[in-house]
Give the backbone structure.
Amino acid sequence: MPTQSASISNPGLSSEKSNIRWFVCALLFAATTINYMDRSVFSLIEPILHNVSFMGWNPGADRFHQPDFDNNFGNVIIYFQIAYGIGLLTAGRIIDKLGTKVGYALAILIWGLSSMCHSLVSSVVGFYIARIFLGLGESGNFPAAIKATSEWFPADERALATGLFNSGSNFSALLAPLLVAGVTSRFGWRAAFVTTGSLGMIWLVVWLLFPYNKLRRGATQTQANLAPVTEGGPLLSKLLTNPGLYAFAAGKALTDGVWWFYLFYLPQFLNRNYGLDLRQQYWFLVTVYVVSSVGSIFGGALSGWRMKRGATVNSGRKFAMLVMAICVVPVIFVPHMGQLFPSNPWPATLLFALAAAAHQGWSANLFSTTGDMFPSTAISTVVGIGGACGAAGGAIFTSIVKKNLSLHPLLVFCMAGFLYLIALAIIQVLVPRLGAPREA
């Protein structure tokens, strides 16, 4: 691996002179797709779980008054979110110590095996345990992927690369409903977890065979300029005195729960409000996540487009985040669509799609701010801490959703619509000027 000084004098060394960095981006995309497939199986089989006795569905009550089932279903999600958050507190630091290749491999090994173990449960507690280990393993995905992006891409490509691999979370929605519906109809709901978990094992083999450390570039001039940010003391103590950490954490804490709301509750929303089963939901789910992929790539490219035309990193990132935050707001009208179009799910679906697309564009830029504020040696740790805050915020948001979505949906959707603008205001206060000198 080249030394830092050599990398600075000859930045981009191998990765920026070839298309290898885009192959790495494709691997990150595939891992993120598998990551979201594994975590979304539980929500996709929600209608099937009505027939699983230990989940607590009451066949004598209507679908809007199922307190036992809703509590069990929501708690399984919350256990995942809590474990995911706890895992993120350590996953980032572990990946920074082990390096991206080994750290990523360990993460996907744990979450793939945990996903398959869902097939063995016979109680709600069994789901709790399986989801806890799934959350611990999946917590390594984004710290590793963002670190890899900082190691392979320059600043003006980083948000685009992040948007591309992050769109794997949307691409999973094209594959997962078809795969889960096909497998469950033939082999039952347990087989769905085995199927998606085994995909992670296939990815692991490809990742281990790829000569990541041999081909990646060294530190760039920007990373050299950012090095003093974490020098002069223990890494964690330096990070805890940096307002950039709190800005990133606030952005994650306020908005991650909204995305998880879409991921975990959209199938339930379509089922309860429009009577759609998993197969009937497919094109509505596909629409939401295809549009989300466009938003992820567009939002990521938007900041780079401005930077390449002379805008500062601060201006490029925050302009893109403001545009995305504004595009989320119309989701507040979703509860009214059921009254205006009671038998037509498309108006509500399109509002979901716009909000989900805006979230992904927001997320691509939010993740990229870590590389604007910290050296690559600290990025996984920063992403892990911020992600833990996001998981905590997600658990809080889920606790609100499970109690209010059926009976007080306007409260939920108003929160989902305005949290991004609040988050951006906090980021602006904490970090008025993002970015470091442009890379040589």
Remarks:
- The two ends are 20 Å apart (CA to CA).
